[in-house]
Amino acid sequence: MKVMENDLRGKRVMSDEGMYLGTLRNITVDTHTGDLENLLVEASDKIDPRLYHQDERGYLLFPFSSVKSVRDVIVIGEE
Description:
1 helix; 6 strands; 5% helix; 42% strand
């Protein structure tokens, strides 16, 4: 099954423990290999973003390898 990046942007992102983390805003790609690197997530008001890695704009960074499932929401696991 193929999923287009446009279909993912704006989806809710949750931990595999059921905690709402925020909304997917973008995905970073290695320009040399084409590998997907990180999800950039706008943090939910219900979490403390200081507990997570962030980029210079304040988006939460989750490695693409942490994605467990993509359906109605994106589920990520703790690494």
